[in-house]
Specification:
single chain; mainly alpha; two-stranded antiparallel ribbon; 4 strands; globular
Amino acid sequence: PSLEDMFNFCGRKFSVKTVCEVGLQMIDLLEEVHNRGVMHRDIKPDNFLLGLGSAADQLHIIDFGLAKGWRDSRGKHIPFRDGKSLTGTARYCSIPTHKGHEWQGIKVTSKRRKYAEILRRKESIPPAELCAGLPDEFRQVLVCTRELGFDEKPDYDWMRKRLEGVMEQNKWERDGLCDWVVKNMGDSGRIGEAMD
């Protein structure tokens, strides 16, 4: 099952603990992909799958159909290019991608207008408003990713520390007991059995 499947299974709401658990695994996966010189370019809940059985708490990234190398043949970062068409899923793509650099329920008559409206909404909602009611660490990570320059390397350790800090503050363990496991079995079941 995908994260989108689990989000639907959980009534389209995840707890802060689940977001931290999933977020930490996503950071690890994306760092590994980036370290191999690849940009995924279609990050969305449908492209993260859970393992099965005893690996039901492990996240996997799929669908590299839009992936692209970020290094040239000499190992240097590819050059910045402007005027590119949108790559990926408009709902989940970054603001720079919307602008041509390398939300849901919007009703418009053309894709171009729809993409423009999605971009407008993304730009108009400040991170503090978007993350209202959540730990400030979520806002910090969002701001950090939005401020990344084209050729800057994300600070994966810093992002991990933000989410780990939320886990520590709440005395949560990285035990794999995400919302779908708790909903499916209750706290007494084993993770592997939840997805069998």
